[in-house]
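Hi support team,

I'm filing this because I wasn't sure whether my run with S-adenosylmethionine finished correctly. The job status page said complete, but I'd like someone to confirm that the output block is well-formed before I use it downstream. Pasting the exact inputs I used:
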Amino acid sequence: MKDFPPVSIADERIPDDPIPEPTPTPTEPTLIFNPESLIDRFDLERLYAKQQPLEVELGSGDGSFLAGYADSRPASNFMGVERLLGRLRKLDRKGLRLGLTNLRLFRIEASYLVEYMLPRQSASAIHIYFPDPWPKRRHRKNRLVTEAFVESVARALQPGGMLYLRTDDADYFQQMIKFCGASPLFSEESTPADLAEHLTDFERSFHARGIATLSAAYRSLVAP
Ligand SMILES: C[S@@+](CC[C@H](N)C(=O)[O-])C[C@H]1O[C@@H](n2cnc3c(N)ncnc32)[C@H](O)[C@@H]1O
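And here is everything the job wrote out:
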């Protein structure tokens, strides 16, 4: 059998040689956060400077709605959730330009966040605007707003909290109102005018092309 030279595991630093501290890398200011754990619920007190009502936008895209809306409501905290980093960074830049201290951004899959990371009954509102429509019948299983998701949203909302929906896809809209409208967990309301006037990037683009959009609002009645 071939002999291998013994492997030395001796520590060649002299005994009092301190372990060098890693050089801190300068960090750019950002509203994007990376939680310590992806399996624990957020500690909202650590996330925001002020403890005030929390509103969450799922699939915030380039973020014109959320940046403008958070700017107009300093007495609430906001969380933008988006799976595409490039889009989240655009919203980050908008929020930083506005000097927002009530907005934090998180890159993650929206239904996972709602079910596993948002504390139960923590949100005063959840906004879902123009979620990917998945128009082909065989792709509809990929839609965000499903019956199970709506129950998950009801668990994340405070009793009396609001779910706001907008879409340009008539079939998806029917699915949304079927699951929310038929649910004993929600009652239908109208979208407040001061919220409806904050348009999203996709909404602006649809309106510019003459494409009609639909909206609905539901109040959470009880936590399941
Ligand atoms: C059609 S865009 C609408 C963006 C924005 N709400 C608007 O109205 O301008 C849908 C956005 O949701 C994001 N998205 C889709 N499914 C998602 C999911 N499951 N979790 C997180 N983000 C998602 C997409 O990356 C995209 O930015």
